[in-house]
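RECORD TYPE: inverse folding
INPUT: structure tokens
STRUCTURE:
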């Protein structure tokens, strides 16, 4: 079991930079009155010690904030609505407020810590791709309570993770396309590059093909980006290139909306000529035309379980290192199932 190193304090920074703690505080908070050479020396000490300014809060005041922090890459998109609903509800039930920050706009990591660290929150929920590996390592070494959502910790980092059965869900839906609808040329639209959910969904896609003796064809894999515009463009590219396909398994439901639009524009009937399936069962899935076959991921429950795990960490209670929530198929018309078979 790796143990976090002792967290550096504002006094440690002051000693290394050979200045007063007041000077360190002025530099950290961007106040005037510090010579450039002195400020540079303080910044170098902060970098060398991997000091997070928020750590000063516990030195100065040993009180709880009764607030949880949530770090997301962005808030846009249909996916985040049920996730935020679950997180907010569980936080309120546990007596906590919620403070949200995003990393969509580039900003110094110290500013994120100022916003979500110990002086403002008691613990942190970190969504996939919100911090790079170095940031995750620093978070672990700080000893600050945290829980990851949909992201496996890097080597040497022991943090609880809450996620879903991405691989088995993808395998089930692709097997349904093959077995129930005799689809053989199935496109897979990947999520953003490096996204862990997309990685596991692709593994499920490949496993289903292999289980049914179908050869993997790299031409049938394209980047959909969990984005309807990017997914539409990807399918338009496949059609323009003359690549034959009879089904599209989309990385998520938002992508599926773009795929349906591209196929309609091209005059391809769904599900007559092409079956379409998504993932997540977002609120829009039952309202598309035709209604979207997908994998229900219980996203709101992911948020609730992540908060419960974080609260246990804050209280020093045992936490399951990896919680994988089950998924289920939702069969609607876009794959070729009759309305009577829908949920």
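DESIGNED SEQUENCE:
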């Amino acid at each position: 079991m790796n143990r976090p190193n002792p967290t550096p304090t504002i006094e440690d920074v002051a000693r290394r930079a050979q200045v007063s703690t007041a000077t360190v505080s002025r530099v950290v908070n961007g106040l005037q009155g510090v010579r450039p050479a002195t400020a540079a020396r303080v910044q170098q000490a902060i970098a060398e010690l991997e000091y997070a300014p928020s750590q000063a809060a516990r030195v100065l005041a040993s009180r709880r904030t009764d607030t949880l922090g949530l770090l997301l890459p962005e808030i846009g998109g249909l996916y985040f609505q049920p996730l935020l609903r679950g997180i907010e509800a569980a936080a309120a039930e546990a007596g906590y407020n919620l403070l949200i920050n995003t990393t969509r706009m580039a900003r110094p990591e110290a500013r994120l810590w100022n916003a979500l660290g110990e002086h403002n929150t008691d613990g942190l929920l970190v969504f996939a791709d919100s911090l790079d590996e170095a940031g995750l390592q620093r978070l672990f070494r700080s000893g600050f309570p945290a829980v990851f959502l949909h992201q496996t910790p890097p080597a040497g980092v022991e943090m609880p993770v809450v996620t879903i059965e991405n691989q088995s869900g993808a395998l089930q839906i692709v097997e349904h396309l093959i077995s129930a609808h005799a689809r053989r040329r199935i496109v897979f639209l990947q999520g953003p590059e490096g996204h862990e959910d997309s990685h596991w969904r692709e593994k499920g896609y490949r496993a289903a093909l292999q289980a049914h003796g179908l050869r993997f064809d790299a031409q049938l894999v394209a980047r959909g980006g969990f984005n309807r515009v990017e997914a539409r463009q990807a399918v338009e590219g496949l059609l323009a290139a003359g690549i034959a396909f009879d089904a599209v398994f989309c990385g998520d439901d938002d992508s599926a909306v773009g795929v349906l639009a591209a196929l309609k524009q091209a005059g391809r009937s769904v599900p007559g000529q092409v079956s379409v399936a998504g993932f997540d069962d977002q609120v829009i899935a039952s309202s598309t035309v035709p209604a979207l076959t997908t994998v229900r991921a219980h996203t709101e429950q992911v948020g609730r379980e992540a908060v419960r795990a974080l609260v246990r960490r804050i209280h020093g209670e045992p936490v399951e290192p990896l919680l994988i929530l089950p998924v289920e198929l939702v069969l609607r018309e876009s794959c070729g199932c009759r309305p009577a078979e829908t949920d």
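NOTES: Residues 166-181 form the longest helix (16 residues).
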